[in-house]
Amino acid sequence: MSDPRTARGAWRLRADRARQVADVVRQQIADGVFGTGLLPDERTLVAEHGASRNAVREALRLLSAEGLVVRNRGVGTRVVARKYEHGLDRLAGLAEALHEHGPISNEVRAAHRIRPPDAVAARLGLAAEQPVVYLERLRWLGDRPLSLDLTYLAEDIGAPLLSEDLENRDVFALIEETSGMPLGSAEVSVQSVNADAETAAVLGVAEGAAVFAIDRLTRLADNRPVDLESIRIRGDRITLRSVLRRTGERA
Amino acid sequence: MSDPRTARGAWRLRADRARQVADVVRQQIADGVFGTGLLPDERTLVAEHGASRNAVREALRLLSAEGLVVRNRGVGTRVVARKYEHGLDRLAGLAEALHEHGPISNEVRAAHRIRPPDAVAARLGLAAEQPVVYLERLRWLGDRPLSLDLTYLAEDIGAPLLSEDLENRDVFALIEETSGMPLGSAEVSVQSVNADAETAAVLGVAEGAAVFAIDRLTRLADNRPVDLESIRIRGDRITLRSVLRRTGERA
């Protein structure tokens, strides 16, 4: 443990306290606690958190650096980016999950047949020579990009989608409509990574910005894997939510 | 769409292809496909992905920048950091979830009673004056830090833990043992953020490195909230996994 009586110890103590305060306030922002959009003033935060004014200022600086709040002299600290919540409780497309926040529009960057890498073919249960339908979509919510989705679809499932409204519809909904078969489940893995330069440029964030990198293999109700997606979601726009149970069943 | 016949278009095309290749290989690394730890050579990757040699090299550069592989001239590209998987299917402590990879050890940075911020008290269902037990633990797996956990516990639940082996045990297991009550469920929210300078220093990563910021409110089986945690997990060490069902029930 560092010693708070030394300069280094005092600095660390303040940094630790600032992080504690920032964690609480960040979650309050996520929960929509600040109805007016204005955070309490510094004096109130000092009293509320039992922290020094310097620690509170440092906490606000952290939240500002994350793009969650803007600090204006004389006005106070304003929430500028409440993140949208995407449930991890249930398999849902983005437009479906975020419908209450407005329509998702998709900038379709690619939509055609390709010969997939062997690794992709294997995960879709296809022989190496079989083509797949490849989609690349930059997905917008409001006036800002939300995610970049690379999608590999088994050909029989994907081909009918090429004449559908890919700009405004979720792939999940389109698959169920055109195939007449319901989706069943998906294996999802979520990573937190720094955006490379090109991904950052496409998503409209700074190079190195934290993003979710999600790999999702979706199966029809009969368990056949048909949709492999590689998704980058802006970390500053989405919170993933779930309810976990100790016993392992879904809450 | 950019035009691949222009220099900018060609660059973007290569960057897009590089990202596609990197996404596939990253998931293969996560799945433990490369048993020997060596990736296929460039020529094999070119054939496998139908990509240019430049795109494959750029993909390997991306994976190297993420700290997943190291490239050695003459030897090839070696996997150095397969991420550990932490299931999001079931409520489990870190030591419990990762037991097959080795023991978790906890550097206990704080363990004492505090008067919590009102926001914390409210989420734990406590009156503003009630103290809580505060724990701060830097959690190690092997020779590297994995996560920094800030924990607020209802006093009656947390106080008995202060005389327990916090260095080697999960808080979840200790709560169940000392209280005699099973845990029930937790509300979890997961964000992807850039590590601030102090968090980065504690976790042993570069400032700005992508980390998971997890907020988790855990309830006893009788639904009483007793454990509020704010967790930072190194993005380069953990993949969160889940199986989602279309119908909303746990897979």
As for the number of domains of chain A, it is 2
Oligomer: homodimer
Termini separation of chain A: 39 Å
Query: Helicity level of chain A, as a percent range?
Result: 25-40%
Pair with the biggest interface: A-B, 78 and 78 residues
CATH class term of the largest domain in chain A: Alpha Beta
CATH topology of the largest domain in chain A: the name is Chorismate lyase
**Total helical elements of chain A:** 8
Radius of gyration of chain A: 22 Å
Broad structural category of chain A: alpha+beta
Overall description:
The structure is a homodimer of 251-residue chains. Chain A contains eight helices and ten strands. The first copy, chain A, has 251 residues and is an alpha+beta fold. Chain A folds into two domains: 4-79, Winged helix-like DNA-binding domain superfamily/Winged helix DNA-binding domain (Arc Repressor Mutant, subunit A, Orthogonal Bundle); 84-241, 3-Layer(aba) Sandwich (Chorismate lyase), CATH 3.40.1410.10. A six-stranded antiparallel beta sheet of chain A has the order 4-5-6-9-8-7. In chain A, a hairpin with a 4-residue loop joins β8 (210-220) and β9 (225-234). In chain A, α1 packs across α3. Chain A is elongated and about 65 Å long. The first copy, chain A, starts with 6 loop residues before the first helix and ends in a 6-residue tail after the last strand. Mean pLDDT of chain A is 88; it is low at 1-5. Chains A and B meet through α1, α5, β7, α8 and β8 of A and α1, α5, β7, α8 and β8 of B. β10 (238-245) of chain A pairs antiparallel with β7 (183-194) of chain B, so a sheet runs across the interface.
